[in-house]
């Protein structure tokens, strides 16, 4: 029997050191992700939402194990178990060489379609690059696969000779999706794939992702800061604040009945298309997100929480079950 | 999906490099300067065919000889001289004898290192004349021939130095920028220490011990020339490394060598490529200055700097200082025009790299 979870993140902590002084000693650290546990169920879409800087992209990059490349000093602890038919692997324990053979299974779509494609390579070269590393396909086969993928993402096969600068943002993002799909991955981490696009194009790209998900039997981790986008695509949503998950549950429950005060505030900030619907009560948060370099003690949200109590400074709330499948990290609220 | 149809017209797809080349061609001043310099430079390798002392073909007693490729003594052509044949005199001699022998001379039959005192008489330097377009220098050598040969030597020298400094600078800059961390910190400190060595004094010291030659000068200039390139490439690598397409390559499982050579490097060369013509100009200038100061190429190598130095010590003989200056002015100006056009062609404007 296949395991139900395809990916399990256990107590993931990511700390970036802040260096200073003459000898560049570590003087502080940024806790970008502060103890996050998540499961990705086979075939589902998990939405990860939160404000900028709350660590959602960091989770994605840590999962796919590319953080150590861009910031070699990063301190990553915890476990990321990839569970396939062949067995279970903790991706975080792997060296870059050992990780390489798993990369075909787990791919990423990047936020910025302009910087995520190498401008010196043609679209065909970009899409076939993963095939070079993970398959033994001949040139002809790779070309066929590229043409097929281009069609799958709604572009024309003849466009494989073109260069990224000849495409619009939405088209570029489709190229990014085709590249991520080229090796038939099981998991795709979509790091804000639509936030750099126009609203009309956003819908196209999201629908494309959904079509491809059922066709390729994909499991998606969909990272975004726009709750309405996430609600549309996700079966489950995790809401993050300052490196922690504050609420986790089924998409529609979170969207319509959030429990955690932060989720409520985040939802009330979603603009309503109908100006007559003003009766919705708005929660406007005071102040700014505290810096992850110097997080508040206890509950990270207490400095801005409308229902904060003095005790909140004394303990770190953990995710508690509030209703079936729906968890929130606050002891003072209930479903 | 209406947005997908916008790009389907059958226009030829162009890579960024091709696009820049096209844009470069539209900048006429730079493009024609480029063609001119390229033409002159290629031509300058065939210089002995046009400007030189050795005859191209000699017909003597029914036999053809090609002195341009081989040494012939004067006697072998029936000339009453010691040592090598003098083909200009030989031509006159054959014309007077009128025995069916003939000599085909280069268009401008004077060599760069040839002492013309025997034929010209008087005291060198000789002023320009119909025969010697730019006169002769203080040793009776033809200035025009020296200028032409000096062009080839100066440009070759400068191109070789530029290429070598680029290869070394790009390699070191790439290592520092890509690996970063301690390698970068210590590497940069070493480079800073190296950079404080006074270049001119090192050359003076070396040339007071041994006579510098072409290769040694290239070596010394390369030794000090790569430092600037390192800073450019290191910075570019730092910036490009942080961009998403590199993360994407890592997440695909690309090896470091692949990331460096096919991803980051092609995207980091823009500043150094647009800088290259100016580097060539600078290196021509370095060679001229070293020759001028007397620390350059060994005599009798034809060189512009050495001519200028003669001009300065014989200030009345204006052609000695004006001709090399004009030659240098036009060469450097053309190369600067090329550089300007390349910079313009590489200017991102719409598809900006620094968005």
Q: Tell me the span between the first and last alpha carbons of chain A.
A: 35 Å
Assign the structural class of chain B, choosing from mainly alpha, mainly beta, alpha/beta, alpha+beta, or little secondary structure. Answer: mainly alpha
Helix content of chain B: 55-70%
| General shape of chain B | elongated
If strands are numbered along the chain, what order do they take across the biggest sheet of chain B?
2-1-3
Oligomer: heterodimer
Sheet with the most strands of chain A?
Answer: 8 strands, mixed
Please provide the count of β strands of chain B: 3
Which two chains share the most extensive interface?
A-B, 50 and 34 residues
Helix fraction of chain A, binned, reads 25-40%
Radius of gyration of chain A, CA atoms, in whole angstroms: 21 Å
Average pLDDT for all residues of chain A: 88
Distance between the termini of chain B: 27 Å
Helix count of chain A, per DSSP? 10
Instruction: Report the order of strands and helices of chain A.
Output: EEEHHEEHEHHHEHEHEEHHEE
| Rg for CA atoms of chain B | 27 Å
Uncertain runs of chain A are none
